[in-house]
Amino acid sequence: SSTVAFLTPHSTPQRQNKHHPLIECNHHGVQTVKPKCVTSTTSCRTKTTQLFLIPSQATTSKNQKQNKSSCANQTLYTASSDSSSSREIEAGDTIVYNRTENPVRKNDSDSKNTSDSKTRPKYEQHQGQLSKKKRNKSRSNNPSFGNYPNVPWRAISMAHFRRHPNVLPLPDAVLELKQLEDVANFRQGSWQWDALHVGRCTTSQAASALGLLEPHAARAMGIPKSLQKQGGGSAFYRLRAPALAGSLDEMNAILCNHPEEQQERHKTTHDVDVNEIVWEATKSRHTNTTAAETSRSPKKNSNLPRQPKFAARYLCKTTEEELSKWKRDARRKEFNTVPSMRVRMEWGNVQEATSLLTALNYFWKQDPRIMIKEVGMCGAGLEMNSTMTNHGLLLGASPDGVIEYPNRTLEALEVKNHCPFVSANFGNKTNSTRNPSRKQYRIREMPLQPTVPPAYVSQLMIEMLSLGPSCRSAVMVRQTATNGAVILRLHRDDAWIDEMMHWLRRFQTDYVIPDQAPPVNFFWQSEDQNDSERYKKFVLRTKELGESVQLVDYIKNGDIQRVVSATRHQPIPLFLD
Fold this sequence. Notes:
Elements: E1 49-54, H1 61-69, E2 76-79, E3 94-98, H2 108-115, H3 122-127, H4 132-141, E4 145-146, H5 158-161, E5 167-168, H6 191-197, H7 203-209, H8 215-221, H9 225-228, H10 231-239, H11 248-255, H12 259-268, E6 279-281, H13 291-296, E7 312-314, H14 320-332, H15 340-350, H16 352-366, E8 371-373, E9 401-404, E10 410-417, E11 421-423, E12 441-443, H17 457-466, E13 473-479, E14 485-491, H18 494-512, H19 529-547, E15 550-555
Parallel strand pairs: 5-8, 10-13
Antiparallel strand pairs: 1-2, 1-3, 4-12, 6-7, 8-9, 9-10, 11-12, 13-14, 14-15
Helix pairs in contact: 7-10, 7-17, 18-19
């Protein structure tokens, strides 16, 4: 009743028919064996054959179906021509052939453990949730290549997000500043918000000023080369400019009574139709049981009502007229000739509100009283910004949002949207067969990683610092177009923040004040050996923080609230060709 088989690199397995396979091996003197549970057999034409080893199971049709569906999660085994270098296959090992490179060899007990979904990490279970049939269906609805990426694809606008019943938006105009921290009431993207960035070390320049984007430090942390182009020069030219700072009266005179402010007030009153109904609030069905228990265990809690998927129903839909307008705009912007980096930046800006809504819906299930606050530039009222201890260094941060809990505690909220569009020849994976029309872009589906990239650790820490000592953690949402999203939490590390402030002050005193541009690999290749060793420890600690974040949860792609098409059964395409 057991199955035993052995394949050698230069032997071709023979079988009588696909329902009753017969494997003959005439190498190493292995006799013919008649297996009952062989899932599939193929000829071996390469020097190394990779096999899946599956523990013996009963040969019932039910177990065969389970065996077939779990093949992708089994442990790899490599059979080589050198019999001494490979473990003998034991009775009960079912063979599943695979041509994946870099095989891993484990024993049968490890294979059995990895096949059990209960022992697999949560993120691995998520990556295997989409069946091959569903993935193929999703790809058929969206072509893999195109010339005009649909950047506003199913995106909810920020103007509509502000009108969500669980969102606390900023006012259209700020008439007066009662304290310096009130500059956070100017919306992101306003001219006041832009003016506050001049001469100030914000989150966009912190990694540059810390030297984390220099070649040696970036290589040690695994930061991609696309981010290394900024270097220390980016922060140097920002910080050497005179900053907008002064007394409360001076800030009021500049930011609230400026002629551009009058134009801004007139503009914001005509942007949105205030009478348009955008959201329909969902009635919470919470009981003494939490929302997570209600939604994830419906069988165990059969007497409890099922928790709604979203906090509010979005009433707007994409019409044919809007889709036609997007096509005209894409051709007008000549997306087929612009660099892919510009497309990625526009995607991140347009899809920001959709990712914020993902966080809102998730935390609303935990507590329907949760609120998302809109904020501008935070940290202007920090004590360190009002003293001379920083040698003129001013800090500031603009989180994408702030999560406000019923007990008044705060969490910084940052979202990162992974753009699905890359250049068609990215990675040299395009060819005439897959891309016969020579399109400019292709879809790249990235697997989600439950880590915070090291380049963004300083951003989250400065956001927590700018929100005050009561903010003890930050939430990051990494969202994709087709693979769902992941929610992470980075806890505040005051020791790391103190070390970060040390190196930011050093950047200010060593380069900004003397008006001398920093050299390549500054700090890392410091003339002082003690400084160099201290900085390298800081870099390694930064990498550790990014890899040790708390995995809150994975969000399935179907659980992300997006705009739907007004035409039923007609999906919105990712390309506008």
